[in-house]
Fold this protein.
Amino acid sequence: MSGFEQQVAALRDYLMKFARLQLRNETWAEDAVSEVMVAALAKPQSFGNRSQLKTWLVGILKHKIIDALRLHGREVCQLEDHVESNEDPLDYLGFKADGHYVEPPAEWGNPEQRASSRQFFEVLEICTNQLPPVQGRLFLMREWLELSSEEICKELALTPTNLYVQLHRARLRLRECLELNWFGNKA
Amino acid sequence: MPLMKTCKEATALLVAREDRTLSLGDKVALRFHLLICKACPRFARQMLTLRNGMKEWRNYTTPD
């Protein structure tokens, strides 16, 4: 193998992590990453350092993942979580009958100091991965692929109402998970 | 009265505005609520922390 091939091959696991998080399906993730490898090896380039190579590969991966999401559109947003459909996710926060907070939300502290560590990102990834698959995919389409809500609806033929309900749940769950596993401990 | 929102409604709007543009009426009502409420600005800061955290995560490549 050439030096370039070795460098690319060594980043396979790194790419798989993102593909799994975003696609929540092992086969789709494997396929997307294999396509990245093929595309990258077809145009060898030299990079000053490994982080530039990573950035380039992640850029290709994002395109392959959008293709996969489009291809599997129906399954991507097929809801499996009937159980929680009646639950109001705002209730995790604790509101009285008159709509006031039982207890005010916690002060999480300075995000600049807190949110820069590698450990924080690990917790963030674990929490994202704990979202139900549909919520996780839609949330990362917003936050990792940086698609607008309109673009997501168009790609997946979803109604805005359905999208917003899922994103709303995802954000509240993620908030809850981070509070329990990061901000709560450190406060 | 549409200008008055409960904390629960204001919190729902703080989540929603991450993904959609609020109506003008909701924007005004939310701003007003945040001025007179002590609890909801904290929730707003949590949402901001999340937004910034996701942004940093997105731009972060694991060092070797």
